[in-house]
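Consider the following assembly input.
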Amino acid sequence: MDEINLTLENVESVVQHALLHQPITDMHTHLYPPTFGTPVPNRTGSTDAGGLMLWGIDQTLTYHYLVAEVFRVVPATQLSFETFWKMTVAQQADHIWKTLFVQRTPISEACRGVLTLLARLGLDPNEKSLDSYRRYFSQQDPDEYINRVMELAGVQSITMTNPVFDDNERQRWLNGAAASGDRRFQAVLRIDPILRDYPMAARRLHEWGYAVQPQPDARGIAEVQRFLRQWLDRQRAIYIAVSLPPDWTYPIRPDANGPADSAARAGETMLEQAVLPVCRERQVPLALMIGARLRVQPQLREAGNMVGRADVSAVVNLCLRHPENKFFITMLSRENQHELCVAGRKCGNLMIFGCWWFLNNPSLIDEITRMRLELLGTSFIPQHSDARVLDQLLYKWPHSRACLQRVLTDKYRDLLGTGLRLTQAQVQRDARLLLAENFQDFLSR
Ligand SMILES: [Zn+2]
């Protein structure tokens, strides 16, 4: 079986088979197990309004990608933001389904995704109302449903994002329910305020009993280290993560002396003296997601974020100045992708990952993945789902897998053209690296 040789004729089916049978380790999502509570009514009864496990048709349709799209068709001059946000989740979902799926052709990637996931569950995507979908989901048990979705999507492990400065989530860890663990999920310690808004982070840390002042000092640095160690342990987190705006620089400009710059300077001190030392000590990577400008249209809430071109030299400086640290990097702007690939060729401690958010479209995944293979071989992580609603695994992975299949098929055909002999086992090895092992190996490196 392993000795099947690739030919121009069989290469596509060999690649398809290899990708389909390679279990995926999804390295970045916003998904949670049922121990974090779920706001979705289901056959097991009680719901938890602030619960973090999102799943089902109403949560799927009110995903922020679709909220942004519905306000293009029914603008706020016709249905005000206030009115929309006062509606129940089910009413918002009805509005989005009617507007984007019934009255229009659901051709956008986010819309197509909903149709793909319904079809994967064996549901007919042609319904005019959501009643039958709601009936289907109300009969599911969330815990069993996770298994079903993971099996259908081919996902073996889900990596969460666990923002420790979010009171709702933090409380769930402290009361023990969240920390009880679920083998299917891995935690990631998300610490944005420490790097982005240190005065606010310091205030919270002080409330929580850490001897931290608004300006970093030796005591504060040691206390932030203590805080990070405690939470890495509590969450059993496999890496630390931060999202940064496009104007983030490293190091900070020497002439930066305004009020906003003093917060940035404090963030940089904490990065260099608290976060990176703890990452080294624990041998955990730091993940930086760079390029989202938050709430450009605040009335759209989560749907109101914008992309901005960032400075790749900041990434290069960071990786070169801290060779003992490991960095996962993803950037949101298409314009940054080529320079980031070149940066990857200079820095062995830089692992490029994913086609994030506004890049998670087939045309861009195709372009970016091709370029990465050409510049980096197989030494990168082509995709993460970023799923916020469990059901999204059922479309994000099949759509990305189809792109990867096209690109790899072309690349193997080019190799066959040189006269190189390739086997099915080699294709399987590449699929394993790209969908699971590059991530796992980087963690344990
Ligand atoms: Zn994310």
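The radius of gyration is 22 Å. Ask yourself how this observation constrains the way the partners meet.
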